[in-house]
Design goal:
single chain, about 280 residues, alpha+beta, twelve-stranded mixed β-sheet, about 35% strand, globular
Length: about 280
Amino acid sequence: MECYKSLNEIQKEEIQAFIDQCSRFDHTCQEVYLGSEFQAYPDMHCFYLESEEEKLTGFLYLYADQKTTAEVSAWVDPQKRCQGIFTRLLGAALQEMKKFSYQKLLFKTEKAFSGAEKILEKYPVTLSHQEFHMLADPQAEAAEKEIPGFSIREAKEEELGTLAEIMEAAFAEEDFEAKEHVKATYRAETALLFTALYREEPVGCVAVDTSGKCNYLYALCIDPKAQGKGYGRKMLCQVIKKLRSCSTKQISLDVDEENQTALPLYESCGFRQASQLVYYAMKL
């Protein structure tokens, strides 16, 4: 087994091809971010690979942008399953998490992958939450309301502090390091950060991961003090237009299935459910 703090481009290509192979077999479509810019601890090993005859047989990714909770996703060669590969990969990841005093692990899987519950039955997990993975219909064009004074543009370094405050207020997660997250997004070569402005004052933001097969939207938020005025919809429509003007990639995002504020917004802007993500929690 090999473990890494970060991956080079050749490794990323090999791993992505392996994930695609597993996804075709399992009829899943989960996307994975193979960067290390958002890890809370730069010295933490987050990528675990097992190979046989120089061919990947298993891969586990520990996404740890928070300091107490980490998220794990794993893939095993369909021809090599039930041979303990996942157990070994997870064991190594758990040992690493203990070094950094993590308290909780989230197992991320897809409802389409029927083997998840059987694999996890020997671990003390409970269902945490579920999300919809959504893709924008390339033929859909949402009706866009004109809002005088509203605009979006790529974020400027001097406003990162303001965007972090907006993000903290919008998401209200105790363990969410908004300042570091915003800085990492701004600096990442494979990410875009957009600021939404009303009369030249920041009122929201949205980030885009451009590293995968889709342009993946995340951290989409509007300052709670400015919500209810149509800014979120306007920002989403404008970002979609910008991305489509410079890229042929599909546009995707994830949303909690219980978020009855965001879900109708995304659907009205042309997003359709492509997969259902399932998260199981385990205390460490």
